[in-house]
Amino acid sequence: MKLNISPIPALSDNYIWCLSIADKAVVVDPGESAPVLAYLKQNNLKLDAIIVTHRHHDHINGIPELTNAFPDIKVHGPETPRITTITDPVWDGDTVSLFDDQLLLSVIEVPGHTLDHVAYFNEAYLFCGDTLFSAGCGRMFEGNPEQFWQSLKKLSSLGEDIKVYCTHEYTQANLKFAEYLEPDNLDIKTHIRWVNEKRQLNLPSLPSTISKERQINPFLRCHLPEFVESIKKILNINNHNATAVFAAVRAAKDNF
C-alpha cells in the first residue's frame, strides 16, 4: 500500500487533507468543494469517502456538492443532527475502514472545541481537526477546561512519531504565544526558524508530530513543573493544577 497525503488549501487558512491510494481518494473536513474537485481532476482521482471531525462550517460546507458529484461515497463523522450529511456515524472506539480495508483509523472522542468533536488515528497518522494545532489548540466554544484538557492528554499520549494533521495554518501565530510563555524554550525557538523558512516558501508547516508538540505546544505542557514555573508570573497563576493551568493559558491565548 502506497498512501499519499497532500494538503488542499481552502478558505483563508484551512487544509483539506487528501489521502490517496492508486486512483482513489479520501478527504478530511472539506469546508469547500471547488478546490477538492479541482485537485481530484488534476490528479485523476475518484473520491471514495469523506471523514469529518466536527460540525463547523469550514469543515463540512463542501460535503453536499462532493456527494452530488460522487453519490455512493460514505461520509464518516460524529453523530449529531447538526451534520445532516453524515452517512456512517462514528463513536469513541470505532474503527473506520478506508480503501477497501487497506487503511484503518481508530476514532477517539475529543470534546472541548465542540462537544461532538472526534479525531481519527492509527500508529502513523492523526487527523485531529481543531482540537490540536501545531503549538496550539482550538478555541473552547462548547466544552469546559477539564474536558478539553483530558482530550489533549489523550492525543499527547499517542505514539511520539505519529504525524499530526490538523486543519489550519496557525503555526506561526501559535509559536509567538508559545515563545511569550516560555522565552527560554530552545525547542520553540528552533521550530520558529524552521516554520518561518517553510512559510516564506509558501509551504505548509504541517504535519507536525506528537513528540514535537510535546516540546513546543503550551496546551500539552500544562502538567509540567518547568512550564508552570515559566508562566506563573506572566499569567499570575497560583493554582498549579493542570486543568486550572490549561484554563488560564487558553484564556490568555484568546486575548493574545
UniProtKB/TrEMBL annotation:
UniProtKB keywords: Hydrolase, Metal-binding, Zinc
One annotated GO molecular function: hydroxyacylglutathione hydrolase activity
Free-text comment on the cofactor: Binds 2 Zn(2+) ions per subunit.
Metallo-beta-lactamase domain ranges (all copies): 13-168
Annotated EC: 3.1.2.6
Top-level EC class: hydrolase
List of residues binding Zn(2+) 1: H54, H56, H113, D130
Subunit structure of this chain's protein: Monomer.
Protein name listed in UniProt: Hydroxyacylglutathione hydrolase
Organism: Agaribacter flavus
The organism's taxonomic lineage, starting at the top: Bacteria, Pseudomonadati, Pseudomonadota, Gammaproteobacteria, Alteromonadales
Gene from which this protein is expressed: gloB
